[in-house]
Each structure stands twice: as C-alpha cells, then as structure tokens.
Specification:
- The chain has one domain (2-158): Four Helix Bundle (Hemerythrin (Met), subunit A) (Up-down Bundle), CATH 1.20.120.450.
- 59% of the residues lie in helices and 4% in strands.
- It contains 5 helices and 2 strands.
- It has helices at residues 2-18, 26-32, 49-68, 91-114, 131-158; strands spanning 122-123, 126-130.
- The radius of gyration is 17 Å and the shape is globular.
Length: 163
C-alpha cells in the first residue's frame, strides 16, 4: 500500500511541477511574450522578464544538482542565482535558456519518479532536507515566478507604448 501512496504522491508532485492547474502554464506564457519585450524594464521593477526566467532556470538547476549530484557545489545567494545586469541576449540564447529550463524540469521529474520510495531520505547529509522538500520548494518557487511572468506579459504587451 505504501508503494501506491508514494506513486500517487509523486504523480501529484510532478503534475504541480509542470503547472497549469491553478495558473497558466509557463509554456503558454513564454509562447505569448514577443522576444523584443523580454529585456524591457518595467518602471519600479528591478528585473526584466528575461531576468526572472533565467533566475528560475538557475534555481531549478541548483535544486536538481542538490538532489542528484554527489559533487554538489553550493551557489552564493543572491549573486549566483540571478543573471548579470544589462546582459543582452540573442534569440538563440533565449531559446537555449527555455530549452534548458524544460530539460532540467524533466530531469528532476524523472529523478523524482525513479526515487519515489526515497521521498523522506535525507539529501546531502542534512536530516531536514529530502526529495519531498525539494519538490515542494521547486513547485513554490516556480509558481511564484510564473505569476510574475504572467503579470509582466500583461504589462509589457498591453502597456508597451507607456514604457
């Protein structure tokens, strides 16, 4: 019975990591934003649409590495979690960032699925950190920033003449 509960739990976690139940799917938001708008500064906000997605990619990769790698190297907060200021990117790099985000998300979900019997096993020798905790952090973090991206999309698309 425990195996069935773990399978159901992991299935629900993966469903929420993929998103789209309580909010718009990230893929749909990224499809809606024109490339020309991803590096536009919104007044009063210290980051761009690009900055947020790149931060999400970096943080998600960090969680993946933390869970999966025996050679995990801790990133420095906040410097290593955000792109460098005023970095101009090409459409090719933008596509690469999106692809990397999707690939890492898929790798995390596969790791989660393959380790469904180890949801509470300590990670990195820390009794308080386990795979369930990391999955919940990933869900919470990506949900929070997905909401920001949705808001940015609306502001940038509908008010671009004011910016």
């Amino acid at each position: 019975m425990e195996i069935l509960y773990n399978y159901r739990t992991v299935t629900q976690l993966i469903t929420h990591i993929l998103g789209g139940h309580a909010y718009k799917k990230l893929e749909d938001i990224l499809d809606e934003i024109p490339f020309e708008l991803i590096q536009i500064n919104v007044p009063g906000v210290p980051y761009t649409f690009y900055d947020i997605l790149e931060h999400m990619r970096i943080a998600q990769k960090d969680i993946l590495d933390y869970c999966c790698s025996d050679n995990y190297q801790e990133l420095r907060w906040p410097d290593d979690y955000w792109p460098k200021s005023n970095e101009t990117i090409t459409e090719e790099k933008w596509e690469s960032i999106k692809d990397s985000f999707y690939q890492d998300r898929s790798k995390f979900n596969k790791w989660l699925s393959n380790h469904n019997q180890q949801l509470f096993t300590p990670i990195q020798r820390n009794e308080n950190h386990n795979l369930l905790r990391e999955a919940l952090i990933l869900i919470e973090h990506n949900s929070y920033h997905t909401g920001q991206l949705m808001l940015f999309t609306r502001i940038l698309k509908f008010d671009k003449e004011k910016i």
